[in-house]
Structure to design on (273 residues):
């Protein structure tokens, strides 16, 4: 997997949770890790998502006390045809790991190795939306790096789930009751899971709450948020049959305006809905 040219030095990867892009979501630990890096990698996801790359750049401008090298790389697009979802994801992760390595190699070719000589670990940071441990694959991609990093450090970030419940002033669980964090794909393919009356649904570009049977939907309330913590934050809540059309309309308009959208929602069923 290693690109040709100068072999990579030992690597120390810092995976830094940055919340939802608001500089106020950064912890002191996150700021320290960004400033300690020799190199920060920033992904480019195409012109329609240039605003996302700009947000990461703005965070760097707001936080960095010195000037570590910042290297961009083009984010591979996941193959979406076929019914082999797990294989698609595996191919995608391998391609991203190759892009990381190529970006690191290019950065080393354009400048001297870190202080301490060529054998010193290169401290590389990646800025991860939310937290690297919750529905994010950065840790799995890091495990594919060759040669293996000397150390992977995770800096916790505010998750979209926390930002959502804070924005709605909502407790995520009812007293003594469990809740489930799941994905839109799981809700769409398997319906409402047993054992929980509260669901937090992430990674749902298909608005899978619309697939619930009408008799179930009448018992459900929804709390939805997009661009949480940002100036363009959007919020909706209410009984699902009433709130769903508003969410669909606002979501489509916002995506058309910005070229991207990050959203999340909580569903709760019960007679009170």
């Amino acid at each position: 997997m290693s690109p040709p040219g100068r072999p990579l030095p030992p690597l120390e990867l810092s995976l830094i949770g940055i919340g939802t892009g608001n500089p106020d979501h950064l912890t002191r630990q996150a700021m320290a890790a960004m400033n300690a890096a020799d190199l920060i990698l920033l992904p480019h996801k195409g012109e329609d998502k240039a605003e996302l790359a700009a947000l990461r750049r703005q965070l760097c401008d707001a936080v960095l006390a010195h000037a570590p090298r910042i290297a961009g790389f083009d984010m591979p697009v996941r193959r979406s045809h076929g019914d082999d979802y797990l294989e698609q994801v595996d191919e995608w992760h391998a391609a991203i790991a190759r892009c990381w390595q190529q970006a690191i190699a290019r950065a080393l070719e354009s400048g001297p190795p870190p202080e301490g000589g060529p054998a010193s670990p290169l401290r590389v940071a990646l800025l991860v939306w939310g937290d690297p441990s919750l529905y994010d694959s950065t840790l799995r991609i890091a495990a594919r790096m060759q040669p293996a990093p000397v150390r992977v450090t995770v800096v916790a970030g505010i998750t979209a789930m926390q930002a959502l419940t804070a924005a709605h002033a909502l407790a995520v669980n009812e007293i003594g009751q469990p809740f489930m964090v799941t994905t839109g794909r799981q809700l769409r393919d398997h319906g409402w899971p047993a054992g929980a009356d509260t669901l937090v649904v992430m990674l749902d570009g298909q608005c899978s709450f619309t697939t619930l049977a009408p008799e179930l939907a009448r018992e459900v309330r929804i709390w939805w948020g997009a661009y949480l913590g940002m100036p363009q934050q959007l919020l909706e809540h209410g009984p699902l049959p009433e709130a769903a059309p508003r969410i669909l309309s606002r979501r489509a308009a916002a995506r058309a305006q910005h070229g991207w959208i990050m959203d999340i929602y909580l569903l709760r069923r019960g007679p009170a809905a």
Summary: The longest helix spans residues 85-109. The chain has a mean pLDDT of 89. Strands lie at 11-17, 39-44, 69-74, 122-128, 151-155, 180-183, 198-202, 220-226, 234-239, 263-269. The first strand starts at residue 11 and ends at 17.
